[in-house]
Design a protein that fits this description.
The complex is a heterodimer. By secondary structure, chain A is of the alpha/beta class. In chain A, 46% of the residues lie in helices and 17% in strands. Chain A folds into 3 domains: 2-108, Immunoglobulin-like (Sandwich); 124-149 and 338-379, no CATH class; 159-332, NAD(P)-binding Rossmann-like Domain (Rossmann fold, 3-Layer(aba) Sandwich), CATH 3.40.50. Classes of the chains: A alpha/beta, B mainly alpha.
């Protein structure tokens, strides 16, 4: 009987759950802890990631072991299972441990294998950009070579550029000057470079027609380049004597002070033609509307989608986006430049095709059997 | 040679900067930082040229008495005064205001005298102003020297309290530059109204479409628009368009009637299937995020490709307009 009682008690005790586990739940150590050199960076960075074995952890501790010291370097929230250590030295070996903390209890993971950081020589995230760039370069170079062989390349009419000749002629007939604003951007902006290229062509025409040209500038570097361009153009047109050094001048670097000065210039001089080509911001409408009130014929062009509506409203002709970049080739009719324009057009066609194919693939990838298409689409996305 | 060196420099820098974009190594990052610093240094040198151009332009304008030459004097005086205050942190007020003014006036006088019939122009108002300014400046200088010698207590502004960020500089910035900039920016509102009037005159089908789209967006963005169903807006807009069409061109009446019929059909579908009515803010949002965004993206694609092609042309030396154009 006693033996029976003892055996029953023993069975009963074995069936009871562990009393300690009920009162204070001990968190499980983190799952797989991985420490890797952060990819595609300039070094001095190690990426540590881990998985939560259960939901008991109230915080995570990240511990780094260096050759000569050990220290806790971060405390993460329960839902943050990743940490980037940016206080490491390149080519020094480190190990990491992660601890799950709950109710004062700390459970550490095993240390990771040794890891060291190092800088990379190629950013693999940008491989899609590299491929796109090479394809586009190949197209441009191919059409430039085609143009070199003398093939006639068709370029569609651009009304704003056809009007340049007329605009310069108008100024000559009226005996009034032409105002050319090469935008408010710096010389590092492509739109400014495109505008300066057009300035060269416009200056040649003004030299031929003997019209006065006024070029106010906001950026001192743009001013120096613009001055040289106008001077060279006058020399090329065989009229170096007609170049007036004060026709190209620096006004101010202040945005609205510049706008006020150019407005004043337009109101006083009553130019026959205004060119606003380059980068513009909020002052675009102030300039274009003042120019419109003076009765000048106005040709504008910018690559800013926000300023284009203002120019379209207030100017007679507007070069929309890429037309600004095409202007130099269009006006000079140089075969090499026209060839690059053609390459640009085919580049756009490639983008269009990519968009259509990408959209179709993305739709198809929603089907379970064709899910791998999303990887192809993902290749084209920015990372 | 004059062209070969810049072209070679552009080719080397262009290609290295392209490679730099794909290389995250610290050497590459350091190279990028260095070149951006160079740009700033070149900019600083160019600023000297820019200031030189500014002074030459305005002094020439004053000398030749071209239209608006009075403003040129103001521009040069402002340049000198503000520059001096910035450059000389502990300059006295007398010096800061009167001495530069005197210097500017004297300088302008010299410019004027060089080109005119000397004796007649010698006695002009400018000499009187210059003389007065010079006297005041000298008086100020004398007061400053005496105050220093005898330990007189002068007001802060008079006793050399002017330095960057101090009273006078703040006065110039807060009371001149900021309001002037704000005024120019405020003019934009009036220009927008006049530009909108011109753009929204429904002279063509495109302009009529623009007008309707603009009204949808504008009304959809204001509080009252939140209570307007798209259908009723369409009724009002089309009615207005039709009336305008009756006055100007009969064709607009048919366009208006057609749009109204389509709108009515859409509304009937909504009513029949108990679909919640489309409110104006939703319509405005759709106009902005679908047709408007599509057009914007098309332009952005073109701009991006155009930018790359232009850069390539400049790097390869095909585009030489920035050098003044032409070949070697």
């Amino acid at each position: 009987m006693i033996l029976l009682l003892i055996s029953l008690l023993a069975v009963g005790q074995a069936a009871l759950p562990d009393s300690g586990a009920v009162t204070a739940a001990r968190p499980a150590p983190p799952g797989v802890v991985k420490a890797t050199d952060t990819p595609n960076d300039d070094g001095k960075s190690i990426n540590i990631s881990w998985s939560a074995a259960d939901t008991l952890a109230q915080a995570w501790l990240v511990e780094r072991t260096e050759p000569d010291s050990v220290k806790v370097i971060a405390t993460n929230k329960p839902d943050e299972t990743n940490y980037i250590d940016e206080e490491v030295r390149d080519r020094v070996r480190y190990t990491y441990r992660i601890a799950a903390v709950a109710a004062g209890d700390t459970v550490w993971s095993d240390p990771t294998p040794q890891v060291s950081s190092s800088p990379q020589f190629f950013n693999t995230n940008r491989i899609n950009i590299l491929i796109a760039m090479l394809v586009f370069f190949a197209l441009v170079v191919y059409y430039i070579e085609t143009a070199k062989k003398g093939k006639n390349l068709f370029v569609r009419r651009i009304a704003g550029l056809d009007a340049v000749e007329e605009a310069v002629g108008r100024a000559t007939e009226m005996g009034k000057p032409i105002v050319y604003v090469p935008g408010l951007g710096s010389v590092a902006d492509i739109a400014t470079i495109a505008s300066l290229n057009i300035l060269g062509e416009v200056a040649k025409k003004t030299a031929q027609y003997d019209s006065a040209l006024l070029v106010p500038n906001r950026d001192p570097i743009v001013y120096t380049v613009a001055r040289e361009i106008v001077k060279e153009s006058y020399t090329k047109a065989g009229r170096p004597d007609a170049f007036r050094p004060d026709s190209v001048f620096f006004v101010t670097s202040e945005q609205f002070a510049f706008a006020a000065a150019v407005d004043g210039l337009m109101v006083r001089e009553k130019p026959a033609t205004n060119f606003f080509l380059g980068m513009f911001w909020a002052e675009s409408l102030v300039l274009a509307e003042t120019g419109a009130t003076t009765g000048a014929i106005q040709i504008a062009g910018t690559d800013s989608v926000f300023q284009l509506p203002f120019f379209i409203t207030a100017c007679d002709y507007t070069l929309i986006g890429e037309e600004l970049y095409a202007a130099s080739a269009y006006l000079s009719r140089e075969p090499l430049l026209l060839g690059s324009l053609k390459g640009q057009d085919y580049g756009k066609m490639v983008i269009l095709l990519t968009l259509v194919v990408g959209s179709v693939l993305l739709l198809l990838s929603k089907l379970p059997a064709l899910g791998f298409f999303s990887r192809i689409v993902g290749f084209f996305s920015t990372r | 040679m004059k062209r070969t060196i810049p072209l070679a420099l552009v080719l080397i820098m262009g290609i290295t900067m392209m490679i730099q974009f794909f290389v995250p190594h610290p050497v590459s990052v350091g190279y990028y930082d260095l070149t951006t610093k160079w740009i700033r240094i070149v900019g600083a040198f160019a600023l000297v040229l820019g200031t030189g151009s500014f002074i030459m332009f305005h002094s020439d304008k004053t000398r030749r008495r071209r239209q608006g030459w009075g403003y040129s004097i103001v521009a040069i005086a402002a340049l000198v005064v503000v520059a001096l205050i910035g450059l000389c942190p502990r300059i006295m007020l007398w010096w800061a205001v009167f001495l530069p003014t005197a210097a500017v006036v004297l300088g302008l006088l010299l410019v004027l005298v060089r080109s005119v019939d000397k004796l007649k122009r010698f006695i002009t108002i400018w000499y009187v102003i210059a003389g007065a300014a010079l006297l005041v400046a000298l008086a100020g200088f004398a007061v400053g020297v005496l105050a220093g010698r005898f330990g007189w207590r002068l007001p802060h502004e008079l006793a050399g309290g002017i330095r960057p960020g101090s009273i006078l500089q703040n006065v110039i910035f807060t009371n001149f530059l900021v309001p002037l900039n704000a005024s120019m920016f405020a003019i934009l509102a009036f220009y927008m109204a006049s530009a909108a009037y011109r753009a929204f005159r429904a002279r063509t089908r495109e302009a009529a479409l623009l007008l309707v789209a603009a009204f949808i967006v504008m009304l959809g963005m204001v509080p009252i628009g939140a209570n307007v169903p798209f259908f009723w807006f369409l009724v009002v807009a089309v009615a207005a368009l039709a009336v305008a069409g009756l006055v100007t061109r009969a064709k607009a009446l048919f366009i208006g009637a057609g749009m109204l019929a389509v709108g009515l059909l859409v509304w009937l579908v909504f009513w029949k299937f108990r679909i919640p009515p489309l409110m104006l803010p939703d319509t405005a949002e759709w106009v902005l995020s679908v047709p408007n965004m599509a057009a914007k993206r098309a332009i952005i694609f073109g701009v991006a490709l155009g930018g790359i092609a232009t850069s390539l042309k400049v790097i390869l030396g095909i585009e030489r307009g920035w050098l003044g154009g032409g070949k070697q």
